[in-house]
Amino acid sequence: MRAWLTAFVVALSVLVGAPTPAATASDGSLSVQIDGLTPSRLSADATIRMSGIIRNTGSTPWKAVQAYLVIPRGPFESRAQIETAIEDGQSYTGERVVDAGTFAEVGDLAPGAFRRFQVTVPVSRLGLAGAGGVYPVGVQILATDDEGQRSNDAVARATTFLPWVSDPDTAIPAGVVWPFTPTWGPGGRDLEKIAVSAESGQLRRYLDAAAATPREGRTIMLDPSLLDQLRLLTDPDRLPEGVRVPEARADAVTTWLADLRRLALDSTTWVVSYARPDELALNRYPENAEELWERVDDATSQALADHALTGARASWPTIAGTTLSMLEDIRGRGEGPTLVSRQSVPDWEPRLGSVVSLDTVNGPLPLLVNGALPDIPGAETAVTLRQRILTDAALAALSRDGDSGSRADALTVVDPSWDPGADGGEVVARAVTTRGSGGLTRPTTATALVRSAPLTYTGDVPEQVDTTSLSATDLDRIATLSRTLDRLDEVVVDADRAAHHRAVAGLLSVRWRPDTAMLDRAVANELASVESVLGDIAIDSPSTITLSSSRGGFPLTISNDTKEPVRVGLDLAADNPSLELDDIAPVEIDAGERHTFTVEVDLEEQTSSTVTARLATESGATFGEPAVFNIRSSNVGLIVWVTMGAAGLLVVLTWARRFRTRRRRRGRAPVADARFEDHDE
Fold it and tell me: Is the pLDDT of residue 634 over 90?
């Protein structure tokens, strides 16, 4: 009878401990997370204590809420077994422990309410198989809904892992990669929320957690655009209209930036390209790739210089957006490592290690593989991340024990949007230190693994992916903006070239993918702004210029109605190829001023010609609206002067003749008078 009852209890526990996929939190709006678990590694005399929070995220109440520990009798001995179980369903967590005193009576939960739970179960009461693998362990929530229905299917669950392995002969290399990149939408949205996050929210806690990781086990992946975006919040004059950041909060952001800089300088730091450009798009549509990559590289270098930071260059494509051709391009631009997902290297195995080498036509490229397990029930907490690191280390120890060529390790890449909580860093840090892990791990960095002669990955890399990237049209418009900014940079005497590099690089970010319509508006607005500035520089000229001869000079005036001094010249061209005009070298013109040039021209045998004048930069590039006018010359000029000279001579001769005629008449007059008088006498 005792044996029969034991078998019945075991069968019942298996039955209620294997929930179907239909029993999810979506029915009941309850959620649960694990934030406490001891021990971190199982042993025969241990007592499992699991705690966490249950929340009612719905609009209806739940009654008689209970929390049950769930664990299988036997462990998983490899990552492949765990992944297969996760893909097959959520029953892999094992059997629900229903013995009296092993589950928690949480009580009722009103909408929006939450309560803590704790379950305590001695390992000796579980009948586990013992050491030699990893046990998935979790919590399942049962409750009665507002209609009085209560099912044996869990309405919420969370899962983590408990390793039970002997200490390895050599501690497993373990470390944490902390990426720092904007996790919000592009275009300057939600700036006030970002400031709050840096002051006392996710950004503050994330940075503190990274700083708590031991230096020898910490790798920072830094996107410099994050620094620029946060620095914007510290300058009231640069904030967009309608955005207000209180001074105290701006000071907190300044402190955050200083702390991040200090952390980066004290860590192994990899620097990714500014704003994480859409590398897939630039590879798919290479027509403008070279000039756009120059902008991105300049933006990255100048941002690092502005923030007084250094670091090894690295690449960080999107999870599902990596192809072999793209990796070839990355290697062609440099030797920096590239962070890729499991999808990008489908034949990767943990035994190869987190860092592998890929042979490309441009040389070997180190790949850091994010080998995280598939998503499991429950939100990630510091405790579950700690257990994930220890699980990877335990599986690596088993791999190395059975395979002398195994390079398995426990390097873990953190999600940059993860919130570790107030003390999460200290919890995670224990997993990568020899003392904190009980001898299972030793700290390492991603750079140390790159330098350790990684194994070569010989498996497949996707030739094509279905991932949607920025389009060729998007890149064409951004390239047009880039070239227009080049003109502006040449023209404006003190142009802010660094800001322009960052503006273009920011528009190439993968964060624009979900909203390309907004990207189009942003590019159009930026282009219109630049063209408006260039349009304020103009040529003043008449429609017709008449020269008094075939050779002469005429004036052309450039007006600078911008707010900055500019340096411009003139490019002159005639429609008649036989007429040669010398271009006017650029000169500096102050804001609001005008400058007049004298243009010399020799029409020779031509009577007229149409001339086009364009504004020109130092390099000879032209821009703006051209001035078109006609030049005429008068070929009768010499005849006019000859005619005028002849006329003058004729006048002189006429007057001379008249003068002589008068003198003759005066000489004859006295003789005539004398004769008349004699006749009278």
Answer: no
